[in-house]
Amino acid sequence: MDTPDAKSMVANCAAYGVDGKKIRDITLDEISDFLAPAQGFVWVGLVEPDEPLLEKLQVEFGLHELAVEDAHSAHQRPKIESYGDSLFVVAQTAQMTDGNIAFGETHIFVGRHYLLSVRHGASQSYARARRACEQTPEHLALGPSFALYSILDLIVDNYLPIVQDFKQELQELEQDVFADLANRDVTRRLYGMQRELLTLKLAATPLQDMLGQLVRLHPEVIRDEVRPYFRDVQDHVTRVSDAINSMREMLGAAMNVNLSLITVRQNEVVKRLAGWAALLAAPTLLASWYGMNFHDMPELASHYAYPGIITATVVICITLYVVLKRAKWL
User: Fold this and answer.
1) Which of 201, 245, 282, 293 could form a disulfide with 316 if both were Cys (CB 3.0 to 4.6 A apart)?
2) Of 122, 123, 118, the residue nearest 58 (C-alpha)
3) How many domains does the chain have?
4) Going by C-beta distance under 8 Å and a sequence separation of 6 or more, which residues neighbour residue 29?
5) Are 221 and 275 found together in one domain?
6) pLDDT of 183
């Protein structure tokens, strides 16, 4: 089964002893040999595996068919499900890509002597978590439950820089909102941020309940010594969720202020147009009267009628200009 295609989908496959020290990297065909003595555990990481590879690992680890069926697809909601003496955990991952959040999924199978992670979509490698565990074998001696903690902790830690980036961008957008700029792009970005934060919230919030279960339940898989670590990750998720809620409220307020300022600026433009229209109405009205060429208009007989009308028009226009200028309509 260790074909070139299979190897490209296997990020790692290693066996660890009861003391937490890494024995060696193993092939997929050797998994059952290491599981037979029921000592230590096997840690396997897959990246977007195909069905034959998952079916092989289903046989090797004795995975439940429903959990394997879910792992085939990357469109699962975050959840934790118990299948006898094993757990199936689904967590959403996130990372920044070209200024936007890219989401992925990680499916984790955890048993007494194995941990299998399946990555789909945007997700950082879990090699960093694996190396950190290998550097502290006394922790890894706690078994697959500590490896599960390391992966979930890394997933949650990847949320934090995204939240910080959004805070910084929100501050910059707030400055643009109050600047004399065209606000269509600002409105579009505010809406995009609100949509991405909602998706991030839907990814982070279920983790609070999942980690709460790992803190209290599933003694067949989770060792009591590891529960404080899950409680720490739960606290991090709560902080992330609270920060997301705060930013969503600030984004909503920023969008309302932005739309209000756009309306105010439009009203200012309408006021100025109306002011200039009123200013031009006076000479237009006088010119229209004398453009009708009636013979019995008494003003036409006067020698100073034409200069008088011009003077009156100028005086009226200046008066209207001063009045409208003071009223800030011009």
Assistant:
1) 282
2) 118
3) 2
4) 1, 2
5) no
6) 64
Residues 184 and 79 in one domain: yes
pLDDT of residue 25: 92
Are 110 and 89 a contacting pair, CB within 8 Å?
yes
Q: How far apart are CA 246 and CA 119, in angstroms?
A: 30
Tell me: do 240 and 131 sit in the same domain. yes
The domain boundary residue, chosen from 210, 239, 262: 262
Pick from 213, 241, 262: which residue ends a domain? 262
**303/189 same-domain check:** no
Q: Are strands 79-83 and 100-110 parallel, antiparallel or unpaired?
A: unpaired
Residues paired with 108 in a beta bridge: 89, 117
Residues of the chain below pLDDT 70: 1-7, 180-184, 289-302
The boundaries of the domain holding residue 292 are 268-326
Contacts of residue 37, Cβ cutoff 8 Å, sequence gap at least 6: none
Q: What CATH number is attached to the domain comprising 238? A: 3.30.460.20
Long-range contacts of 33-39, Cβ-Cβ distance < 8 Å, separation of 24 or more: 35/60, 35/61, 35/113, 35/114, 38/112, 38/113, 39/113
244 and 276 co-located in one domain:
no
Tell whether 150 and 294 lie within a shared domain: no
Determine the Cα–Cα distance for residues 323 and 325; give it in Å rounded to an integer: 5
